[in-house]
Each structure stands twice: as C-alpha cells, then as structure tokens.
Target: Ubiquitin-associated domain-containing protein 2
Amino acid sequence: MFSTSRSVGFYHLPVSKVFVSSVIVTSLAVSLPLHHVRHLFVYTYQDIFDKLELWRLITSKLVFLDPKDLVCGAILIFYWRIFERKLGSQKYCSYLLATGFLASLLELAALYCCKKAELDLDSLPTGPLSFLFPLFVPFFCDIPRVAVTNILGIPVTGKTFTYILGFQIASTSIESVLVAGCGLISGLLYKANFLKIKDWFHVPNFVAGIADKTLGRLVKTETVQQINTPLGATLELQRQQEIELLEEQLARQQFRQMRNMGGMAFQPRGAGIFGNLFDGGAQPRQGHNQPAPAVQEEQVQTLVEMGFVRENVIEALRATNNDVSMATNVLLHNS
Model:
C-alpha cells in the first residue's frame, strides 16, 4: 500500500535544474581544461572603475573558482529548489534576476566606498553568490523553524545545516563577507518591495513561454525520480523512520482525499493504520464520524504567510494533526 521512498531531485523544477547544472559544468570546465582563462572570471576595483571592464560583473557570476564554494553553492541551489516549488518557475526566476541585479549594484557601491576609505581589497569571490544569499531572507522569514534536537543546550533545527553552508561560504575572506552582506541586503530590499521592484522587474510571459518551449523541453523530467530512504543502523531507528515516512505519506494521501471530498475525511495520527500495522488490531476507520482536530490560528498564519492558500493550509494541518513541519511538506508536494 505504501512504499518507503520519497520524491527527490528537480521534478518540474526547470530553473533549479538549469541553474545547478550550468554552474557545475562551467566551474569544472574553467578549473580543469580551460584553466588558462580563469583570469576572465574575476574582477577588482581597477578592472571595473579604471579599465571599465564591466563585462566582468557578468562573467564573475558564472563560475565558482574555489572548489569549496562550488560544493557548498551546489548544495544551496539544491536546497533553494523549495522556493521554485513554492513560487513557480517564472516568479522564482524573476526573484533570482531582481535580487542578483540589486546585489551586484550594492557590490559596486561597497567596492567604491572601500576604495575611497583606502581599504585594500583583493578580487571579489566568484560564483552566483549574488543570487544565492538573497534567498536566505525568505528562508529565515517564511520557512518554519522546527527543532530536531539539542547539542550542548543549543537547539538544532532542520534549517541549521543550510545556515552552516552559507556561513562557510561567507567566512572565507573579507571580500566574501562583503558579497554575502550585499546579497542579504538585496533580499531585504526585495522583500520590502524597494522602489516597487516586484512590479517592474520580472520575467515577461512571452520570454517564459519561449524558455519553456526550448530549454524546458531539454530539461523536462518525464517521471518522478525516487530513491529509497536510508534507514538507521538499529532496528529501533529503522522502525521509527519507517513509521515517520508512512505517517507523512498517509498525511499526503489524506490531504488529497480531503480536497476531493470537501475536507471531511480525517484519521488521527498514531491510530488507524499504525494500530493495524504494528499492534495487530483490526480497528475500523472512523472516517466521516471522526471529528477533525481544531487548528491553531497561529499555525495557519505561519503557513499562509509562506504563500499557501488558507483553505489548503487548514486541510493540511487537520490531516497532519497540527504538525507544521509535516503540513509544509504535504502542501509543497501537492502544490
């Protein structure tokens, strides 16, 4: 009835797929067979303001010359695919272009100010950092923080590793801190709709249509890619992980059923199927007679602010017994 596997990869996410593949291919090409042209992908104050080589602003965003940044950046692009799933490919691409443009302007302004303040800076770090760091703003503001465990009294959440990746890239040098800071400010300006940038800086519909008919066909995923979920080393951990996976899949199934039946069917977690599977019971399903749990308005608002429809949020919370993390997964996989 259920399989112990979950959807992964870039299914229906063409922008993320093109983004990560192009960055990896170009970075490896410049680092290995085309290493003699590496100097074309960096820029300094002299290159921009003295030599007026403005094209370096574009080429420097195309490749990672630092292997560490390439690994961390590729993982971040993979994580950020959640925003393309939430916003849609066209809006996600618009967000990347708008915030990248703002971040690049802020970099130039910061570089000019540092030069006037007689602060010596080396070449700025390469790679699409101007597109990656602005996404930390909606990641911090819109994605729920769900504690997983505690280490030395410090709460560790599902978002902790993502922050560590960003800190690893930003802490490389002073120049990296400058680029990361410009990216974060860019994300804040976009969130505040500075100069109404959301209204005029977006990908036109005809451009999106052309891209979908050309690049979209090349990167189209025919079927959902699936892998088996790795299980724990002990039988107890394996059983717990299997139960959690089945709960999540059951919640998704219930969510789809609730949408089809007008939000009436509900089965509480921990009873029903899990009693039948693991306790040997043959308890009949309560179905329509089982009252749905009351959802908390605070949880509803948290998910609505992420861009989900209020009615769908309420159904997802009921299907997951008010588990915000699981409800978020259900909404993302059914959006």
Remarks:
- The first helix runs from residue 14 to 31.
- The domain at 5-218 is CATH 1.20.1540 (Rhomboid-like fold).
- Residues 172 and 210 are 39 Å apart (CA to CA).
